[in-house]
Amino acid sequence: MALVASNTTRLWTLVAKEFWRKTRRRLRAGPVYRWRYSGRTPERVLIAPPDLRLADPQIALEIYYGRYPLSGHLVETGGKSPFQINVPNHGWQKTLHGFRWLRHMRAAGTELAAANARALVSDWITMHGSHISGIAWEPGITAKRIIAWLQHSSVVLQGAEFPFYRAFLKSLAVQIRYLRSMAREMPDGKDRLRARIALAFAALSLPAPASALRGATRNLAEELNRQILADGGHISRNPMTVLEILADLLPLRQTYANQAEAPPQALIGAIDRMLPALRFFRHQDGSLARFNGMGATIHDRIATILRHDDTAGAPLLHAPHSGYERLSMGGTTVIADTGLPPPVDVSNAAHAGCLAFELSSGRQHYIVNAGIDTYGAAEFRPLARATAAHSTATINDTSSARFTHSLRVNDQLGSPLIGGPQHVQCKRTDQKGVHGFIARHDGYLQRFGFLHERDLKLSSNGNVLAGRDRFQRPGNAEIRNNGRDFVTVRFHIHPDINLLQDEHDRLVLTADQADTWVFTSSEVVPEVEESIYFAGLGGPRRNRQIVLAFKASDVAEVHWQLTRTSIAGYPENN
């Protein structure tokens, strides 16, 4: 009960802080504060930083014809400016005001694309530039827009007349001053880090006193040291955040070099840690493991980032600060979540997936987590975050962590994770020819009196993954049949995998031109049930799951095994 009270107190403290933060933001957007954002207009853009995000000239053409495919949704404006129409999709609006789509105009490389980019920026300045409110001026969106305007200033200003040139620089300066005033009070997490990145870009790309660059560099270093963990993960434990932040940090490092300025050691160190971390989360087909907010992977985006990784050899196997383990040999990769939930402040995307794992063989995924539908309906998010959507165990169909359902809380904070394991113990058990670990969490201890322990071993050159799931009471006390000891161990199968039954009644996982794996269990007869895979590129897909269902009072420990019986001949792990 003390733990619940502590979580509740922490949650309402965060609600109060966020309410006060939003109140101060409204005050700073009012006429009393707005004069502080005025000042000297920069004369020019000194340098346009590079942009590593993928660009498609075809999207520039779509935008020219009034079709905006943003955030997974296509909106046709019917000849109007996109800033004039009311689109109810929040994600689409945030992407529109973030202006990252300017990269497609730059990729098109035509005068028509440049003129269209300039017209759209002019529309934004006219409709939103002098009225600091709404989605357009959310600090996180403002940071994205500042970076995008600087990165693609060459295409926006191509052929521009002096009045637009001046208006562009004036608006940019106002946004930078506004973001500088808001950055320190932004909620914890990647948006606050991106704000510091944007301000460093601005200090390098526009004429500014040396003190401005020193201050931006110092603040960036402090945020990087706080948010990027020693093993290269992010405090949110979301693999996607590592990718997103690297896509900003790598161009920033290059911009420091281009301006003959020494980047802070914190920036160099963060990149050097994060690139191996990205490889740690990467399966052999190039996709990232689906944990804590990770959805579908755009493979080319990761490949572009990893071109900057000069480290050699196989990925690391142990990420203790981020709370993940990796087993890898013979073309087989297993990635598992063995960590505590992230801090409440940065848990909006966190999942209740403790001790869940994914298995890929060659370039095909076999055992997965459901992931999230990145651009899909918000009502599916709670389902994707639940323990049942992960390849791990649930007790009494209950998640190992809890999420808020209070409208008052969600209005202020989103949907943070407010309960979960307080202790997760993990020990590597590697031996010659064997990669393995044993981990245990107490996420069910307070409610049901159980600890869940999982032992995974990958051996025989990657041909055998042996697992053991054990359920015990503290002190190895007897488990009683009290109606609260029902266990379900789930193994979600990737939608591309065929799940068959052979002549020995074993479950066979196979796909065209891919390896074949056989699932067996010694204590419990496996069942097959329907499931849903949220992380498909085209949205959710139906799939199936292998289920071991039993009472812990009858079976306190189950052993299961996945055995590769034929190999399609894919290359070894990179």
* Terminal residue distance: 47 Å
- In total, the number of strands is 21
Helix content: 25-40%
Number of helices: 17
Task: Describe the fold and architecture.
There is one protein chain. The chain is of the alpha+beta class. The chain has 17 helices and 21 strands. The strands form four sheets. Strands 3, 4, 5, 6, 7, 8, 15, 19 and 20 form a nine-stranded antiparallel β-sheet that branches. The protein has an eight-stranded antiparallel β-sheet with strand order 11-12-13-14-21-18-17-16, with no helix packed on it. Strands 1-2 form a two-stranded antiparallel ribbon. β17 and β18 form a beta hairpin. The longest helix has 27 residues. It starts with a helix and ends in an 8-residue tail after the last strand.
Can you summarize this structure?
This protein is of the alpha+beta class and 574 residues long. The chain has helices at 2-28, 31-34, 57-64, 90-98, 102-108, 111-128, 139-151, 153-156, 162-183, 190-205, 210-227, 239-258, 265-280, 299-306, 381-385, 407-413, 445-448, and strands at 67-70, 73-76, 318-319, 324-329, 332-337, 357-361, 364-368, 393-395, 402-403, 417-419, 424-428, 435-441, 451-459, 464-472, 486-493, 498-501, 507-510, 516-521, 527-533, 541-551, 557-566. Helices cover 36% and strands 21% of the residues.
